[in-house]
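Please, structure for the following, as tokens.
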Amino acid sequence: MTIQSEQCDQNPKVIFISGRLDTASSSEFDVKVHELVDGSADIILDFKDLSYISSSGLHVLIQAHKKLTANNRKLIIRNANGLVSDVFKMTGFCKIVTMEG
């Protein structure tokens, strides 16, 4: 998994994720997302190049979503495709967060 982010002084913050978000990589993802969750901006996660997400990855997203909404901010998922989009639909996750693209 690769994590890249746009300049941190922008609102919302955009994080680009590629590869697989699974048990092996979810702790690294958790650290990055929670660094941004503790800030003051909305967060956009661009999943255009994410090929797989496991329950560990979903757990990180749910925790981030809860923290953001408690502070009147949003978690936005952008460009989820293929298997990732299917997982969001099957789990109902797409009804919890804002999905774009």
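The mean pLDDT is 88. Helices lie at 26-37, 55-70, 82-91.
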